[in-house]
User: Fold this.
Amino acid sequence: MLHKISAILFDENKIQRRVSDLAAQISKDYEDNDLVIIAVLKGSFVFLADLCRCFTIPIEIDFIAISSYGDSAVSSGKVTVKKDIDIDIKGKHVLIVEDIVDTGISLQYLCDHLLSRMPASIKSCTLLDKCMKHEADIKIDYKGFDIDDEFVVGYGLDYAEQFRNLPYIGILKEEFYK
Ligand code: IMP
Ligand code: MG
Assistant:
């Protein structure tokens, strides 16, 4: 598996430091408000597990699964909900937790989808952001790292369901997805 990775972008220590800073900021911003975390499956599961254990405020957690990639490295641009949330978010403060934002089409779709349930507010948090690739008009409220236009895997992120268990975030060699 390791021969498919061209470089380690963020190692475990760097990720943990950034995740605990993000959790501290979010805990401060929501200290007076009840917060519902909606994590986007599957890629955010490792990030969520680390982030939520650093929170110093009470939170509820739910999951949503969407699909726009299939086994491709390029977004199809068409988003569908594969598993919806179970919690009633009406009147509650919602934070969407994503692994990575690329075109932003998924995040925009999720915001619209969840806004129809009339939450008190919606903000977004992503570990990684390919900011120069945004196509949708989205606002990211909390961000771990900006990255260039490279396909990355590990720490929950996959290519064709592989690599999610790597403890670091690495760049997948082009020859394995092009
Ligand atoms: P967007 O709708 O184009 O912003 O796509 C966001 C989703 O695409 C993320 O939640 C990931 O599931 C997936 N994705 C985008 N870039 C990468 C990458 O470099 N590695 C792994 N998954 C990615
Ligand atoms: Mg994702």
Q: What stands out?
A: The mean pLDDT is 94.
